[in-house]
Design brief:
This protein is of the alpha/beta class. It has ten helices and 15 strands. It has a nine-stranded mixed sheet with strand order 14-13-12-11-7-10-9-8-15, with helices on one face.
Length: about 375
């Protein structure tokens, strides 16, 4: 089996997680270079994973000298377009990067179009779908355990650009990839517009998909706290309602079901959660599926950039609906409008938002993991 050469830029917490997932697929990838502007961080990662590869502080130089097939970059959203342009300059065939894919819709569209035009197999890291509880939820839908799917709910305590993009992607995924036809929405609160993942403090939207399924998404502090004792970045839930029952799965491992498969009894449990299992449990299959797509054009990755872009487009449309106070039909290519972040910064009044803490990696985790 062919090994795909791969170079990685950005070796912070998430960058090392990507690296570990790649190395867990050592039969599919060969790491040929590492890059980070922080030399100490890069050297520490190289030593931790016992890699004897060239180290760079400049991505342009790394790609020029190592000529990889795959370029992984783990950066803030404002740098991602420039990294794609750099990949095109060096003839890169595939790229993997973090969410949210961009800071605004026009940039996300340019990034997607560039990848399509240049034949780049691009994936956006919406990887929580590989958690066992998420995989099992998808199987329940596909087996028909819940009957005909009527509604899908996505709830996340974190704001739109932090985990809203994740759960929008999972909604599309669990609904079989059907696209959205129209949305209505509400947004409020400007506090998190100052975050490095700028977003309104709270977003609420209803989505009509082309297969008739309704989607409902909540992003931000006003979403229901299913597990108040947890950090807000793990208090997220995806719930699917059908004609024969419902089932849900959460980031931190909790799941529940009441359906014909359970004979009408509600059952629940807990699988591995996000923080203790984000490397091998999640990141490894993400890169296994990527190698499968690199080997076979017909095996489209479930995190491909065109699906990620459509999720971004849906969330953007919800913001436009809220600001313009009307239903918005998709695709957004039919609209000419002022960037929504600029409008929200100008138009959204203060609302005294109080956020729950985000896990920093220093506090002790819940022992149930």
């Amino acid at each position: 089996m062919k090994k795909h050469t791969i170079a990685i830029m950005g070796l912070g917490v998430r960058g090392k997680t990507h690296l570990k997932g790649i190395l867990e697929n050592s039969d599919r990838y060969e790491v040929v270079g590492l890059c980070d502007i922080r030399e100490d961080v890069m050297k520490a990662a190289s030593e931790k994973f016992h890699l004897n590869v060239p180290l760079f502080t400049d991505a342009d130089q790394m790609l020029a000298e190592t000529k990889p097939e795959v370029f992984v970059f783990v950066t803030y959203p404002n740098l991602r377009l420039s990294m794609i342009e750099l990949a095109i300059k060096h003839g890169i065939k595939a790229i993997s990067f973090e969410k949210p894919m961009a800071e605004d819709m026009s940039e996300a569209k340019i990034m997607t179009d560039l990848c399509v035009q240049h034949g780049i197999k691009a994936v956006v890291c919406h990887q929580q779908k590989y958690l066992s509880q998420m995989q099992e939820l998808k199987k329940k839908v596909e087996r028909g355990d819940l009957g005909h799917i009527k509604k899908i709910f996505a709830e996340t305590q974190c704001w739109l650009a932090q985990l809203g993009t994740h759960y929008m992607d999972y909604m599309i995924w669990v609904n079989g990839g059907y696209r959205a036809k129209s949305v209505v929405g509400h947004v409020h609160g400007p506090a998190t517009l100052k975050d490095n993942h700028p977003s309104p403090d709270f977003l609420l939207g209803e989505i009509l998909f082309e297969n008739g399924t309704r989607g409902y998404i909540e992003c931000g502090y006003f979403s229901e706290q299913h597990n108040p004792e947890l950090y807000m970045d793990t208090d997220n839930r995806l719930t699917v309602w059908g004609t024969s029952g419902y089932a849900y799965a959460e980031t931190d491992g909790f799941w529940g079901e009441c359906s014909k498969a359970t004979k009408g009894e509600f059952i629940s449990g807990k699988d591995p959660g996000w923080y203790n299992h984000q490397e091998k449990v999640i990141q490894t299959p993400y890169y296994t599926e990527y190698a499968d797509w690199l080997d076979d054009d017909s095996r489209l990755h479930s995190c491909n950039i065109e699906t990620a872009f459509h999720g971004y487009e849906i969330l953007e449309a919800i913001c436009i609906s809220a600001l313009d106070k009307k239903r918005v039909d998709l695709p957004l290519s039919d609209y000419t409008y002022e960037p929504v972040l600029e409008r929200m910064t100008r138009e959204l009044p203060e609302c005294g938002t109080t956020l729950r803490p985000v896990y920093t990696g220093e506090e002790p985790r819940d022992e149930r993991d």
